[in-house]
Amino acid sequence: MKASTKRLLALMGSATLILLALIIYVVLIKPEYDNIQTLRGKLKSRSDFYDTQAQAVDYVNNLYAKNKVDIEQTEKDLILALPSQEDVANVIFQIQRISALNNISINSVNLDRVPAQQKSENTLIKNYGILRISMSLVGSYESFKELLKFLENNIRIINLGTLRVYQANELDKGIFNYELVVDTYYQTK
User: What is the residue range of 72's domain?
Assistant: First the structure.
């Protein structure tokens, strides 16, 4: 065989190998490469979504941990403001202490339980009961005004129902008799 024929066969063999490599690339490798790129994109988007959600959960958990003490204190304050039962002894003690702080004497105390009524079908709004307290008090007018301020600012919810002021025997000393009716509230089941 001549050297030129050998070169021509070598060139044709090389061209055939190059053409065969190009066909393999176009038919087999290119579609799989495109499929891999699509899967990488999906994986990247899911990974980014997961990272974003994990950051949001971490943020909420950190926020909750920072405010947990405040949340617990708020829950305690709400239970004090609207307890889950009548807690008559505590109400009477609060009123007695407020009266003593303001130099008001309590002559008598009467309790009436107002029946709880269904207020709403909404499960978020609980029903509440009313404990009505009628009191007969004696003291100066200034002290009585302070007593009303203390009742108004008390942590337990107390509404003034009725108030009557009567002249006492010691008018020259500014001492009066008072009849006071207040309502306190509690949660019912």
Answer: 1-81
Overall domain count for the chain = 2
- The per-residue pLDDT for range 163-177, each reduced to its tens digit, is 999 887 666 777 889
Position of tokens 């007018």? 141
pLDDT digit string (tens) for 14-52? 999 999 888 888 888 888 888 989 999 999 999 999 999
Q: Of 35, 58, 81, which residue sits at a domain end?
A: 81
pTM as predicted: 0.60
Which residue, 136, 133, 132, 135, is CA-closest to 176?
A: 136
CB contact at 8 A, 157 and 185:
yes
Under DSSP, the state recorded for 41 is H
The string of pLDDT tens digits covering residues 116-168 is 666 666 666 677 888 999 999 998 889 999 999 999 888 888 889 899 998 87
SS3 label, residue 170: coil
| Per-residue exposure over 97-129, b if at least 16 CB sit within 10 Å of its own CB, e if not | ebbeebebebeeeeeeeeeeeeeeeeeeeeeeb
What CATH number did the domain enclosing 143 receive? Answer: 3.30.70.60
- Residue 167: CB partners within 8 Å, gap ≥ 6? 176, 177
